[in-house]
ATPase component (PhnC) (Fructobacillus tropaeoli), 254 residues
Amino acid sequence: MSNKGTIKVTGVSKVYDNGVVGLDNINLDIAAGEFVVIVGLSGAGKSTLLRSLNRLHDVTEGSIEIDGQDITKASGKELRNMRRNVAMIFQNYNLVKRATVSRNVLSGRVGYYGTWQSAFGLFTKEDQERAVQSLTRVNLLDKYYTKARDLSGGQQQRVGIARALMQEPAVFLADEPVSGLDPKTTKVVMGDLKRLNEEDGLTVIANLHSIDLALAYATRIVGLRGGKLVYDQPIENVKETDFADIYREAEVSR
Ligand SMILES: Nc1ncnc2c1ncn2[C@@H]1O[C@H](COP(=O)(O)OP(=O)(O)OP(=O)(O)O)[C@@H](O)[C@H]1O
């Protein structure tokens, strides 16, 4: 089996410019195809960890190997290639609201094009076909020509998933992907993520606020508190009572 989709976080700390410690010496080894849910109080460092994994921001210390390559040291073309491999969906979807669904989905492909090609929207036939396939996988092909702003929140998030799929990633980061969605829509979005995880072997790492969702979808649960990793167990070992400790206030005020 290839190691596509493995992540090795070693001694990672992140101190923001204002001195706030976002992450404090995180060590984490994730195998390809895991569905890791990160839980913890607001401010525990969950988003900081996700944003470090695709280098949306730099870390202060430590290394993050994706498929054996350290993304914290990569630059230029190498970094662009690594970023393609690590797709992300966001709490607020980050779609271009006035653009069509197809245009939003195709934009997931820009990492494969030069600047001028993507500026003029010169996407190849293959990529247009790829967009059709991505939308089909989230069951939204009928919205191909619809403007993103005319979709419900759940549909917008699924467009976000289709857009992320265009990168052909091995790793899928989901930063609170279902907050604000009703229970039924939440199930559809989480179901899409789980299906991609199981069918394509995508490594999924999701920040979630709901313990029930964490228990329902994760193969492994990681707990953060005050920027530190305080819990890391495969789902078989997780007891509901474990969460009380993860959700305890961090002792050190930051
Ligand atoms: N850009 C920033 N500049 C300074 N401090 C920041 C920045 N982003 C986050 N922080 C701080 O870093 C810590 C971790 O924040 P982070 O957003 O990672 O937490 P979180 O667990 O994702 O919280 P939430 O569940 O509310 O999204 C918090 O103390 C936060 O205030």
